[in-house]
Amino acid sequence: MKFLKWFFVAILALVAALVLYITLIFDPNDLKPQIVDVVKQNTGRNLTISSDLSWTFFPSLGIKLGGITLSNPQGFENPAMVSVNEVVAEVALMPLLNKEVVISQLNLDGLTLALETQKDGRTSFDGLTGQASDTVPAKNSIGGGSSATLSKLDIGGISITNTQISNVDHQTNTKQSLSLKSLTLGRFQLDEFAKLQYELTASLPDLKVGSSGEGQIRVSQDLQRVTINDFVVSNVITGTSIPNGSLKADLRTSLEMALDKQTMSLMLASFSAADINASGQLDIAYGKKVPKVVAKLEFGDIDLDRLLPKQEQGAANATQASQSNTAAVEPDLTAMKSVDLDVSVKVKSVKVANVKTQDWVLKMVMQQGIANISQLSANLYGGSIKVSAKLDGRNKVAQYQFDKRLSGVDIRALLMDAAEVDMLDGTANFNVTGKGKSLLPDNLKKNLRANGQFEIADGAIHGVNIPQMIRDAKAKLSGDMSSSNSTEQKTDFTSMTGSFKVAKGVVLNPDLNMASPLIRLTGAGTANVINEALDYKLTTSVVGSLEGQGGNERDALYGVEIPFVISGTMSEPNFALDTKALLDSKLKDETNKLKDSLFKKFGGF
């Protein structure tokens, strides 16, 4: 018993002696000038520690410092780049002898980070890497195949509060700010999960973001693997460019990082924003010169029309006028060369520009600045669409090529929803292959080169009744000036076929052929996709009774070819019949009758 008594007395005396040595003989403030000089030599910046460094002894040994500032380069708007109100670190000394780090608490309060970019390109980070990065070898760096280990790492908790980060860019005249209200980590031990929470707000030029999240984090014993489980994040985004002024986005995810292999795997258990739900997985290999991302995603119903800002007609016209007065610039696709992608996406339905589609499947591979879409398919308006395409973003002006096929599509419903054009009806099959360059809207129309074929079955041309037009013209030539405007303005047909070529913004259709029980329509024409102008020269001929299915006798105009013209625009087409041909046919018919009468009168030849 006496032995134990004196043993504990000796231990207490040793601890007391250590405390007295630290507090009376070793003054941490003696290190302040050395720390300031080292920072000045390596960065050229001024480090200021206005408060005295002091020891803490309860509940564990630690050190407290405050009033810390690190200057920005000379000539910057904010003299201080970093300022810290107070830092407290409490560490158990004895475990350090066995390479065991036991931190009871680490607190950081009042961190302010003021970042700035000057008009000449200088930034707040210039010079911080300085000489140190050139002289100190990067040994045992985490993520580079390091074998550095700790026998034990035990942190009672980390608390970071009242952090403010601002970023001013004088080149773009923009300012961004982030306020981290709190970031806390519960008791943290290697190979054990610890609770992680954060809450922050961010202010961007045209947006404000509020975000909070919590989950579990674990670091492996060899410091090479980081796991985050069940991380739940809630975001609220507000701004004038956001539909309805506000957007709420929530997600639940898990993350696995292998620092030695430099890979990351993100599992998206759920994501929801603006009534869009998604799930999937992202695998990222970031160790190579060009990172590779493999993505497999599934989405529910997507209504893009709800996400697009609604404009009044006057505002829309003003925007278009403003854009037309501004020199158009090709989109910069150089970022396509900075990452390789392998993407697989499924979407339950998509609505955009009032066009409704279902069951989307996308498979795309992007390497070295070239994106190859091997499959893009969907169901729409009773039929389907299948597309394969290639986009080359390596040059300043992008190039593309595609192969598109529509099968069994209700063409009237599609045209009505897509362009509010009520011109054609029927079940359409449509094939087109094309290529071009430039992604500017006007250049897309001008530079596209394409070839294709179309076939529309059991349909109608809306806005015109060609058989009725012929009947009316024939009646007027016979002296009947009555009109039949009550007849439905529609021309039914059993089939409409043709081929087309697209060049310089004009669609050339050289072989339009329409067949119906009453008439045949053939000819050629053009459609200008830039100004939507139509110019068709066609020929119509009667092949049945113009009275319809009830007519028994062959029509008097049977076999007569009558010129038919389509002009105007795609949204407001004009149809015209060449009545002169009818008059010539009528005179010819009367002349033939007169010849027959004379032949009979003179007994023939």
Instruction: Give the beta-strand count.
Output: 29
Decide which structural class fits the backbone.
alpha+beta
Label the overall shape: elongated
- Major sheet: size, sense and barrel closure? 29 strands, mixed
Computed Rg: 39 Å
Strand content: over 45%
Describe this structure in words.
The chain is of the alpha+beta class. Helix content is 18%, strand content 50%. The chain has helices spanning 2-25, 32-43, 132-135, 304-307, 313-324, 411-419, 441-447, 466-477, 579-601; strands at residues 47-49, 54-56, 62-71, 80-91, 100-117, 152-155, 158-169, 174-185, 188-189, 194-203, 208-219, 225-238, 246-258, 263-273, 276-285, 292-303, 340-352, 355-367, 370-380, 383-392, 399-410, 424-437, 449-462, 490-503, 506-515, 519-528, 534-542, 561-568, 573-577. The protein has a 29-stranded mixed sheet that branches. It is elongated, with a radius of gyration of 39 Å. It starts with a helix and ends with a helix.
